[in-house]
Amino acid sequence: MKLFSELISALEITNKTNAKIDALVDYFKRAPDKDKLWLIALFTGKRPSRPVKTTLMRAWCMELTTLPEWLFLESYSTVGDLGETMALLLPEPNHKLDLSLHEWMTELKALKPKSEEDKKAFVLEAWSGLDQQERLIFNKLIGGSFRIGVSKKTLVNALSKLTGIDSNQLMHSIIGNWTVDDITFEELINGTHINYDNSKPYPFCLAYALEKELPELGEPHDWIVEQKWDGIRGQIVKRNNEIYIWSRGEELVTKQFPELVEAIKNFKYDFVIDGEILAMKDNDVLLFNDLQKRLNRKNVTKKLLEEIPIGFYAYDLLEYEGDDMRSVSFIERRQRLETIFDSIALPDHLQLSFLVKFEKWDELHEIRNNSRAINSEGLMLKQKHSPYHTGRKKGDWWKWKVDPLTIDAVMIYAQKGSGRRSSKYTDYTFAVKKDDALVTVAKAYSGLTDKEITEISQWVNKNAIERFGPVRTVKPELVFEIAFEGIALSNRHKSGVALRFPRIARWRKDKPVDEIDTIETVKQLITST
């Protein structure tokens, strides 16, 4: 546990990705193989089910510390995390337990079917033999979230740095079907349980935001323009009668989109296609809010397939019949892609991206401004003779998004951040008027300077009304302009609307609260876009 505890501490104190990767690499170099496997399992959603209810642990902590419930709850409210609260309140250990991560996880798995008395004895014994940081980790191992900012991609990049193995291959390997009990660490990272050659994707070619006037790009006939769709960028890989779908986030998402797999089976060619995964119905692109209902599903039900059908707009051809096409010009890749798609009768949900027809640059302004009417984010501009780059390269691909929508709202809740900002209120909830009351419409945590965050934090400390764990209810006095990419009706939100990518555009110190937007004016943005 000591080594794992040191790793968690190292990850908690930094928000720099490279520092997190270095800490993970150091752990992988020093830890036993079984501990390495459990670390990967814990950080990739393969942890076992919770063996002990947190309500029981809370009761045992109060019994052991003889604290009244009101004082425990007040402590919990101040700390904001149950596992950390218990770790801080428990008395000093009276002996030392020195089990590895693998040994602790084995014990916790075996604890699941035991009686409440046996579970209590085990937990109390563990608490009495661990220091404060180790107790916190023990509590988290039972079922909490570590909240240390380690994504699957960060974990994979650490493993790639350690082993020299391609990160995409490692991603495919660790999200495949395996358990700690049936594989070794070497087998896992080398992908002995997968066939990576058939599934291997390519690094995505990415665009920069347009930062110049259109005429500065040169002649219009040297460019191809497409809609910039608001979905999930994906690569469909078809090799040797096997089909894989990768997201831009290097996630293998094949099982989430069975209708795409069925459609691709009809092609006789092998290829790798870059495109956009979208929620589509009756040939219309739906909102990203609809697409979200299909994401991260282990099982896609028949009902969900019918309610939120998935489509794919193909942008580019990266590989054809085993040949890497990325160095070929974009116009040639597009022509080959059109030939492939012309070879069969395509279902409605599998299409080539349509090209925007224009002769002069000025014609694109109106087309871009009308993008939201078809649930597009704007336009993509691609140089006809450009290769398919790895990552971003200025000059060849540009994204020209529509201007964000904005509303004026008042802050009603504030929550402290994490890492270096854990002492300041950085996460805010905003509301607009509804009749004579306020209704929440968005949460946002980006867009302010450090100076503004400090000023707001000082204001929150003086104007907090109520506490709910780490959250503070504040006087509705501070007005902010909130920017967002899109808006949709939503039954999941009390306001009845969901905002896409909300962030703080500016602090409206010049605007009184009685001039903020109403829920009616916010909903009007749905029809106007």
Protein topology:
Layout: H1 2-12, H2 17-30, H3 33-43, H4 54-65, H5 69-79, H6 82-89, H7 101-111, H8 116-128, H9 132-143, H10 152-163, H11 167-174, H12 185-189, H13 196-199, E1 205-206, E2 208-209, E3 223-229, E4 232-239, E5 242-247, H14 258-264, E6 271-281, E7 284-285, H15 288-291, H16 302-307, E8 310-320, E9 323-324, H17 330-342, E10 350-352, H18 363-369, E11 376-383, E12 391-392, E13 397-401, E14 405-416, E15 425-434, E16 437-444, H19 450-463, E17 464-468, E18 471-474, E19 479-484, E20 486-489, E21 497-500, E22 503-507, H20 519-528
Parallel strand pairs: 1-12, 2-13, 8-10
Antiparallel strand pairs: 3-11, 4-5, 4-6, 6-7, 6-8, 8-9, 11-13, 14-15, 14-18, 14-19, 15-16, 17-18, 19-22, 20-21
Detailed description of the structure:
- The chain is an alpha+beta fold and 529 residues long.
- It has 3 domains: 2-143, DNA ligase, ATP-dependent, N-terminal domain (DNA ligase i, domain 1); 205-401, D-amino Acid Aminotransferase, Chain A, domain 1, CATH 3.30.470; 405-528, OB fold (Dihydrolipoamide Acetyltransferase, E2P) (Beta Barrel).
- 36% of the residues lie in helices and 24% in strands.
- It contains 20 helices and 22 strands.
- The strands form 5 sheets. Strands 4, 5, 6, 7, 8, 9 and 10 form a 7-stranded mixed beta sheet that branches. Strands 14, 15, 16, 17, 18, 19 and 22 form a 7-stranded antiparallel beta sheet that branches. The protein has a 4-stranded mixed beta sheet with strand order 2-13-11-3, with helices on one face.
- A hairpin with a 2-residue loop joins strand 4 (232-239) and strand 5.
- Helix 6 (82-89) packs antiparallel against helix 9.
- The longest helix has 14 residues, at 17-30.
